[in-house]
């Protein structure tokens, strides 16, 4: 027996509407359900990818969090470091890069061993990675992983802009 895949993550947030705006309007997840506040729980929002997800929801947001001084991404305490979302093409990653810069959430981008990534902060400071996977045939487990600055122009020369990989390739 083994785990097959991660099904969903639940994030406790300080402001449901701000977080909804980020995950829905910026990242493009679809709001699929709401659970009203009750004696047992704060209000919850359930979101999923509008494309390939076979899950009821991929992310749930639950209100009632108290802000962490300095933001979530600054702590060395144990806990979630970041979430990663996958896009289907390099062009989609470039579009997301521009969108994240436009809303002031962009942190940095990187060319990593098996994928190209753009990093941002959500409204509570949680680091969110948006990535495009290089084709599996390009991966090597023999080499040490590396991280370099992402050059979209150079990456387009290697991969083109419309090569579908990961879940988008199926």
UniProtKB/TrEMBL annotation:
Family matches, as SUPFAM superfamilies: Glyoxalase/Bleomycin resistance protein/Dihydroxybiphenyl dioxygenase (SSF54593)
Alphabetized Pfam families for the sequence: Glyoxalase
InterPro entries: Glyas_Bleomycin-R_OHBP_Dase (IPR029068), Glyas_Fos-R_dOase_dom (IPR004360), GlyoxalaseI/FosfomycinResist (IPR050383), VOC_core (IPR037523)
Domain VOC: 5-133
Gene3D superfamilies (UniProt xref): 2,3-Dihydroxybiphenyl 1,2-Dioxygenase, domain 1 (3.10.180.10)
Transmembrane portions of the chain: none
Full protein name: VOC family protein
UniProt source species: Duganella flavida
Top-level taxonomy: Bacteria, Pseudomonadati, Pseudomonadota, Betaproteobacteria, Burkholderiales
